Amino acid sequence: MTLGLALALSACGDGGSSASSGSGGAKSETIAIAADPLEYINPLNENGSPGIQVAMAMFAPLVTTDPNTGKTVNVLAESVTPDKTSQTWTIKLKSGNTFQNGQPLTAKDYVDSWNLTAQGSNGWKNNGFFSKVEGYEALNPPTPDGATPKPTSVKALSGLKQVDDLTFTVKLKVPFSQFGLTLQYLGLAPLPEEVRKDPDAYKRKPIGNGPYKLEGEWNAGDDIKLAKWDGYKGPNAPAADAITYRFIPNADTAYNEFLAGTVDFVDVPSTKIKTFKTDAPDQWVTSESSGANYLVFPAWDARFKNPKLRAAFSQAIDRKAFADLVGLATPATGLIAPDINGYRADACKVCSFDAGKAKQLLQEAGGFSGPVNINYNTSSATGQIFAEAIGNMIRQNLGLEVKYTGKQGSEITELADTRKLDGLRFSGWGHDYPSIEDYLTPMFKSSGDANFSGYNNPALDKVLAQGDAEPDQEKAIALYQQAEDIALADLPLIPLYAKQNAYLHSAKIEPRVSKYVGVSALYATFK
Q: Which of 423-435 are b and which e, b meaning 16 or more Cβ less than 10 Å from the residue's Cβ?
């Protein structure tokens, strides 16, 4: 599951007294992440929330969203300038920045790092971010679905050119008016030369360019301990002197660790939505999430091929009841998060609960053969509960047999990526940059990095391309909405709910809360 930052402040705890204090010494905090431990740290090969959280501390982006104004501001970039068509972009870096090994940060580091990621045979997760750059196909030849491309003789994107030590240009295959926004994504962070020469040798001893560096040795499964790096010259450095990321696979366990006083910040799991305000009075914040949550069909399974069948499943689900079960959630009515420009209420015409219509659509689709299998993550305390809730609705409202399969989340993802997963699964998405386009291209474009279902529709790809090429933002949004309509008509996944995020924080810190970039423990202030 890939989720971006939580957006739009909704409510805050009142603050209050604490048994601990951040004064009188080094300012340190321990942030709990309810997920399996990372196997490596490489932002170019990471698009999951746990890895991105760590990358935010260790790597700096070219640009970012200002938490106070919501405007895009430069971090390592001096300027980002499109030509008149938004097809060729010139990026000029600020001078004087270095990596944590002392190597000066240059335009060559970006060009070479991006080429490394764009090489399909490397299999890096952010490869698709470069699909719009001229020359991408030469590095990514046609490959059977689910297979890794073979190495190619071409090793560089023809659209990437170094102009001088601090300047490079990016020529896209077609105009893309949103490209400047994408540069805040940490999947575009550069790697220093010594890491590029042997990425595997540095996968557990990364060399970043952000405000924090790895402190000491780190092995997969260990806490990730970071210390402030004095060489960081970017704007708005965080206040903490040291940060520890502690990975706790079970979200309830992570929550209990906070209550025991061993961590300073934790996400509130769904099981604690009803009690967190009384469990930790004056030590909580909530925010609207930019994430959207879905039930995903396997496009590789012919039994789910008929759109009417998928619509039948959608209308068999009582989203209000399910959102109440999830807690702090509202039923989804489209594919876009409510806080994004271009969101439309009730964009989905088959997302309302109607058991009679669901049965009719199932009949028109020719029924369904065999049991419906719902996969759920065994690491989640609510995984089986949510799966059974959806399964009961499908069983009761469609008369179908339902079974459940529990697996580790990583195993479910691997099976889906190789088109071997049997049945439905839950997933979610939150934007990497604040644009309606980022809810559509990754999940619904045929080559999208987060195309969870294996969906492929040339008509949608065409409309997305038209939106990308439209320099007028309002006209571009209208085109992206057309793409959303196509996806909703095909329904390769079912929108389920949007939810508020809730967090607990120790009394010694006050997380940064912004309606533009959400809640951040990394940028907490100390009391």
A: bbbbbbbbbbbbb
